[in-house]
Specification:
Elements: H1 3-17, H2 24-40, H3 45-59, H4 62-65, H5 70-86, E1 101-106, H6 113-126, E2 131-135, H7 141-154, E3 157-158, H8 167-181, E4 185-189, H9 198-211, E5 215-221, H10 226-238, E6 243-247, H11 256-265, E7 269-273, E8 281-283, H12 286-294
Parallel strand pairs: 1-4, 1-5, 2-3, 2-4, 5-6, 6-7
Antiparallel strand pairs: 7-8
Helix pairs in contact: 1-2, 1-5, 2-3, 3-5, 5-12, 6-7, 8-9, 10-11
């Protein structure tokens, strides 16, 4: 995961550590290499530019230039700024409120939204919750079937909407069932499209107005890089997205989506998918992500 970016940063850091003292010239050289590493990792151009400028402003201070360990000083600045770029503290899924707490999963077709809904239900059940999965993607019978198959094979409750093709009616009935059967979390798998369109956004907004979800999680395929960031930005501009789920992070060798998405959308990553099993999902930890970038072979 993120091998290309890690290798490139390691070369920069090795050079900086070898400097006896920092000068404006070698700081500029190091920042140029960091910028190129970010762009090669498919980080958004504007994000890469502003990120490097923030480091430059701090690295050119007297405290750093006159430090006895200038390389380490600059590395600490880089670590801190990466942490800020990704989001401070630990991301959590918000579950406070009257039962059932509603979590809406939104995103484009093929992002892993349906399997992520099942992973989240599996994780919440392990924490003592009683989730109900709701297949509301009425345009893709395969998505409904997939959720029912995942439910049966993992003993997860999945609402059966029958032949209904009305997402709002399905969610209304599912909500009533959750309340009467003691289900304290309702995870709604909404419709996806191959691209963002007005009809999809209108449907999601209507569902959100009806359900008043505690979380609206945008699911993005990390391996699609800036395409994931651009579509996340479109969703966040249209609906109150509360968090991002990055799927397939285990196969992402670049890291552009992970490093760009919060700065671009204002929405932080809350969950990451790291494999195909239902157990292959974790809360996103920015500090661990940053540490992985600095780990030496």
């Amino acid at each position: 995961m993120l091998d290309n970016l890690t290798n490139r940063l390691q070369k920069v850091l090795k050079t900086l550590r070898g400097e006896g003292r920092l000068t404006e010239a070698n700081v500029q050289d190091g920042l140029r290499e960091i910028r190129m590493a970010l762009l090669e990792a498919d980080v958004n151009l504007k994000v890469a530019r502003t990120f490097v400028e923030r480091i430059r402003a701090k690295a050119m201070g007297q405290e750093v230039l006159e430090s006895l360990t200038p390389g380490q000083h600059l590395i600490r600045i880089l670590r801190d700024e990466l942490q800020t770029l990704l989001g401070e503290g630990r991301a959590e899924i918000e579950l406070k409120g009257p039962s059932p707490v509603v979590i809406m999963m939104v995103g484009l077709q093929g992002s892993g939204k349906t399997s992520t809904a099942a992973k989240l239900a599996f994780s919440l059940r392990a924490q003592g919750r009683s989730p109900l999965l709701v297949p509301a993607d009425v345009y893709r019978p395969a998505a409904i079937d997939q959720l029912h198959v995942l439910g049966r094979s993992n003993d997860l409750a999945v609402f059966d909407g029958g032949d209904s093709r009305d997402p709002q009616a399905i969610c209304r009935e599912a909500h009533a069932l959750a309340r009467t059967t003691g289900r304290d979390v309702m995870i709604v798998d909404t419709a996806g499209r191959l691209h963002v369109d007005d009809a999809m956004m209108a449907e999601i907004r209507n569902l959100a107005a009806q359900l008043k979800p505690r979380e609206i999680l945008y699911v993005a395929d990390a391996m699609t890089g800036q395409d994931a960031v651009n579509s996340a930005s479109a969703f966040a501009a249209a609906i109150p997205v509360t968090g991002v789920v990055l799927t397939k992070l285990d196969g992402d060798t670049r890291g552009g989506a992970a490093l760009s998405i919060k700065e671009t959308t204002g929405v932080r990553i809350k969950l990451i998918g790291t494999g195909e099993k239902l157990t292959d999902m974790d809360l996103f930890r920015a500090d661990r992500f940053v540490e992985a970038l600095f780990e030496e072979d």
